[in-house]
Amino acid sequence: MEIENLKKAIQRLRQIMKEERYEKEENDEQEQIRTKWKAIRVKMRKRKTRRRKILQR
């Protein structure tokens, strides 16, 4: 009886750990996308200011 309960508890823990790992991977992907777009925005801003400076001369 105790062994069965332990086995079930271990299975539950493994399932929870798997789910957490998937959530973490998804979060990492979202974070990568966010940082990628941040970098693109910064590049665009730099280009804009460069154009302005050239036009002011």
TrEMBL record:
Coiled coil segments of this chain: 3-30
Keywords: Coiled coil
Keyword Coiled coil: yes
Stated name of the protein: Uncharacterized protein
